[in-house]
Structures are given as C-alpha cells and as structure tokens.
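[09:14] KT: can someone run the structure on this one? pasting the chain below
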Amino acid sequence: MIFAHDIPEGAKLYFGKKAKIKREIEKLASEVFENEEYEEIVSPYFSYHQLEALDEKELIRFTDSENRTLALRGDSSIDIIRIVLKRLKSEAKKWFYIQPVFRAPSTEINQIGAEWLEGALADVLNTNINILKRLNKNYPLILSHIQIPKTVCSLTGLDIEDIKKMRIYKFKEPWLKELLKINSPREIDLKRFPNEIATYLKELQGISKKIKYDIILAPLYVANLRYYNGIFYRFIHNNNVIAKGGEYIVEGIKSSGFSIYTDNLLKDLDD
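[09:31] RB: done, structure tokens below
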C-alpha cells in the first residue's frame, strides 16, 4: 500500500533548518554569479536530446502527445547551450541555473550550475572555487583529462572498461605504470611518456598554473558524462562529489561548465 504522505525513493524533501541552509547556499551562489556577470536561466524539465549526455538506462523516459520520445532532464549543460544559441539567440556567454535533474528510476538531484560559451575552464573553475570559498569550504580538487584514457586505449589496445575499473594487471607498458603514480602537477616528467600522452599532460600542467588551489591529478580517471572532451574536475568530500565540471563542445562551440551538487554540500554543512 502507498500512503498519501509517502515520498518516492530518491525524491527530496527539505524543511526547517535544512531548507533554510539550502536557500542560503543558493542565495550566496547567485550573488557570486551576478558579481561575475552571469545571466540566470531556468530550463524545461523535459528534453528530447538527453542521450547525448547520459546512458539510456540513467534516463526517465516517456512520450509526448505525438509519440516522440523525451526524458526528464538528466543533465542541463547541452540543453542550456542549445536554448541560448537557437531559441534565445542571446549574445550573453555566461549563464547560471539553480534547478534539479532526474535519473532513473526516481532520483532527484538538486544542482547549482554554470555554463560559459567559449569560456576557458580555468575561469569557470575559479568561479566554482569562489562559491566554495564563500562557504568557507576547501574540498580536495581532482583534475583529469578524458583524452588521456582514450589515448591509452588507442596506444595499448586496452578497452576503456579496463581503465575505468583499474584492471592494473593488464597495464604492461612502463610509461602506463608511471602514469598511475602521478598525483600532482609537480610529478609530471613529460619525457617519460609518448608524445600523444605528453600533450594532454602538458594541458593539465597549464591549467594547474592558473588555479590558486591545491590540485590532485588523476590522469586515468574516466568521466561518466559523455560530452566532456578535454580537462574535467571534481571536488570530493567523504567519497561524495561536491561539484564537478569540464570542457565540452556543443554546436561546434568549445565551452566550459560545472555543477555543484546541493544535496552533498548540504550533508556536509548540516553535519
């Protein structure tokens, strides 16, 4: 029996102190965005193109009045860029949003996010850092490059799942074992790696110099979001992702963006 007051598993309910903290986080983030000249946008809950961002099994899907497949918004980035470019036709490049996304079977994920058309990831990451600083938080920052594991597969014949699941017994090349040991930009010796890998490691070194923050490198980490095509990052606390962002290309435009996971942040602030 489902009672009238039951809440589906994965849905969110905020009240009392937690509701107040959530509102204060969102207000603070809005102030940072406005100070940095971001425009606000609230996009539809429904989307036709979510498969570009996520695996089909992660989406809550159904059909519209013309029997076309659509999904509850599982990710905001691609839809927001397309809405800005093709529907709003706005000249503004920097956009922020405070809205949930939804994943199958019934999970609601509240986010504070930003997208910067043609923006450099270092600048977007600094905005993310500024919000966390306003909250007096200094979470570990992990930097990766999606082209490194892809190039490793191309050079070695490994499958991407071998890297994703860290099947180290399959790692035969000495330079690949060296890659496993890198934890900091200071530990990178480009001469130890094939040119194809060294190119992307150099990009990680470059962005590290533009960020005034302690950085951990994870060169072989594989992102779940399909559209990241370059450097991406995560802020972690107690094995929870507090925020993540990265570089991507939509409609031929290289852009950068990030999302702060409000519920994971709330869990830490409430504790």
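[09:33] KT: thanks! The mean pLDDT is 92.
[09:34] RB: yep, looked fine to me
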